[in-house]
Amino acid sequence: MSLVTTRAVVLQTYRYSETSKILRLMTWELGPCSALARGALRPKSRFGGLLEPFVEGEATFFTKDGRDLHTLSDFELVRVRRGLDRSIELFTVASVLCELVMRLAPEHRDIELYRMLTRGLDGLHRKVREGDPACGLEHVWGLVDALGFRPELDRCVGCRRPIGGGSVRFDFAAGGLRCASCGPGGPQLAPGELDALRRLVEGLPAADAGSVGNQGLWLAEFIRHHLAEGATLKSLPFLIRLA
Ligand SMILES: [Zn+2]
After folding, report:
1. CA-based Rg of the chain, rounded to a whole angstrom?
2. Which of 57, 59, 97, 179 could form a disulfide with 156 if both were Cys (CB 3.0 to 4.6 A apart)?
3. What pLDDT shows up at residue 232?
4. How crowded is the C-beta side of 224, counted as CA atoms within 13 Å?
5. pLDDT score recorded for residue 126
6. Angle 199-221-196 (CA atoms, 0-180°, nearest 5)?
7. Residues of the chain with confidence (pLDDT) below 50
8. Which residues are close to ligand 1, an ion, with C-beta < 5 A?
9. Are 121 and 80 in contact (CB under 8 A)?
C-alpha cells in the first residue's frame, strides 16, 4: 500500500452505503481513477460536502496494487467553481467535459488532457461570473482535440480538394466537410455556420454569443461517431438541446 498526493478534479460522484461516496477523479499523476471517500455524507465529515463535480483539489489517497478503487484520506480544496449549476447551458457543457474524460481518457497520466479539462472548466466558470451568454462549446472541441480527434475542415473528405466558398456538408461519419461535387453526406452548413464551426474548433468563442444554432448537435454527432464508439454518453442529448 502506498500514499499518493496529486492534483485532482472530481468528475462524478456516487453514493456508496449510507455515509460514503465513490468519486471518479481525473488526477495529474495517475490519470483517471476512483476513490472511496469514507464518511463523506456524514454531517460533520472532514470533507465538508466539498466533493462535488467540477471541484479541484490536492487529493491524498492510499493505493493498493491491483486495486482500482483507492481510499481517499484527504482533499485540500484548490478550486470550487461554484455556480456552474446556475446556467443549464454551462452546466451541460461542463458535464460533457467531465463525462468525456471519465469515459475516454487513457488509463495513465495525461497532463495535456488534464490541462484541457481544467482550462475548460475555468473558462466556463468565468462565463458564469461575467454573465457571458455563450455556452463555451469551444472547450469541448478543445478536449475532443486533446483526445486525438479533430474534424477535417480545410479539405473535402471525399476528393481532398480545399474547401472554398459555396455549399459544404458536415459528414460526421467521414470526420469532416464534404464539398458540393462529392455528393450527399450530412447536413448542409451555411457560410456563417461554417465560420462559427471553424472558430469553435480552433478554441475561439463563438462570434455570435447569443445563438448556438446547430453547433451543439454537430458536436454531439461528431463525438458519437468518433469518440463514443457505441457507448452511450448521458450528457450528449443535453448538448443537442442547446439552442
Ligand atoms: Zn469533394
Report:
1. 20
2. 179
3. 75
4. 16
5. 95
6. 15
7. none
8. 156, 158-159, 179, 182
9. no
Cα 193 from Cα 214, distance rounded (Å): 8
* 169 CA to centre of ligand 1 in angstroms: 10
The per-residue pLDDT for range 8-47, each reduced to its tens digit, is 999 999 999 999 999 999 999 999 999 999 999 998 888 8
- Rounded to whole angstroms, the maximal C-alpha distance in the chain is 66
Q: Report in angstroms the alpha-carbon separations of 22 from 36, 85, 141, 147, 241.
A: 5, 21, 28, 25, 30
- What structural domains and CATH numbers belong to the chain? 2-79 (2.40.50.140), 84-151+169-241 (no CATH)
CA of 186 to the centre of ligand 1 (A): 13
Alpha helices in the chain (DSSP H): 88-104, 111-130, 137-146, 191-201, 215-223, 236-241
CA of 154 to the centre of ligand 1 (A): 11
Distance of alpha carbon 158 from alpha carbon 240, whole angstroms: 26
H-type alpha helices, 7-105: 88-104
What's the grid cell of residue 14? 456516487
The neighbouring-strand residues paired with 235 are none
